[in-house]
Fold this sequence. Notes:
This protein is of the alpha+beta class. 21% of the residues lie in helices and 34% in strands. The longest helix is centred in the N-terminal third of the chain and has 21 residues. The chain is globular and about 60 Å long.
Amino acid sequence: MAGHDRKKQVSSANVGRRLLVGMGASAGVFLAAAAMATGATVTAAPAKADFEDLLDPIIQPILTSLTDSIGAFDPAAALDLTNWTDSFLASLNSIDLAVPAASESAASAAVPAASDPVTGTYDIPVSVKEVTEPTVQATVDGTTNTLLVDTGSSGLVIPWEDLGSNDFTALEKLFELGSPIGSGFSGYSGGVEYFYLTYDAPVSLVGGTGLDAGSTPIDVEIFSYPTSFSSPWSFEQFVADNDSTGILGIGDGVGPATASPLQADGYEGVTLDVPGKELVISPTNAGTPIPGATFSDVTSGAPITDLYESVNGGTPVAVSDDVDSGGVYGNIPSSLLGSATTVPSGTTISVYDNAAGTGTPLYTYVTGTDSLGTSTSPSVVSGTDIDSGVEPFLLHAIYIDYANDTLTFDK
């Protein structure tokens, strides 16, 4: 079901017991699948490779994080863990698996990277899932994925399991990608955090005119953990709850990991047009802007800008608005509601470009219940930062200009 705000953010450094549980499950699948995959046929495979060489780039970032955490209170235990892992990896050298070498990833080499900058316009069909979730279809290293289009984050993120039709083919695909080019922890404010490895992989957005983005950085979730007892228990559940298998963050430089594949590969702008059911990649805005409705991104990238919000015709109050297509129904500052802790059905919410609230508001809507029976009221939060949620995207096409760091509301 819908109901998760998903702005990408850096996760806590001290993740505690749940991190260990998550790592154990994922690492167990990796090692078991690797051991059973020795008889698998891999196309375009060069000479045999040692398991230690294959698993070391995956295991070492996890090991480093764990030993740093353990070493803070038990240095001897951290040393034992390091020694055990080194010994275990070395013992796997007797098992050979034919896979492409890191420098000869056939999948990565098959599609050239896009030039910088890129001209031309591409129209990709958008389908709205669960009332609030704009999605596109994409192939990532040849495997089809349904990606949530999220202006509130950057980077293409999928779980490693979705690289293939089952765990074994997915593991095989992961090895074909060669060595990771980065790693880290990240998360979404809907309640899930995860460890990822970054790879160069061929990505194509399918349907319409189609767009072959070439070999571009993607973040592959290796293991995940919830941030509360009410949160989804894994990244896979998090995206599955929204009828997706991954997230396509198209925000302008949001998050600690990679940029949007579109931005990274030189595409200078993108329009998310939910009413028109399309994602338009183009160097200029293909729509008709609302006069005065182009805003600089005040956080040096993210689609966050200073606007003014009003409740039931009251005086507009200054807010920092994260214009977030992945934010479901968003949130609203408690200062606009007096003593209320929830937003009643039938409340009129308007967002303006000026304090006077003159002219046509950028977007306005009345809270109620959607077709799934879910309240469309935003959550109440403290402070002056708001998340627009999907509401403005249901009313307008919105253009993100990567080249100029601006956001434009179209008629």
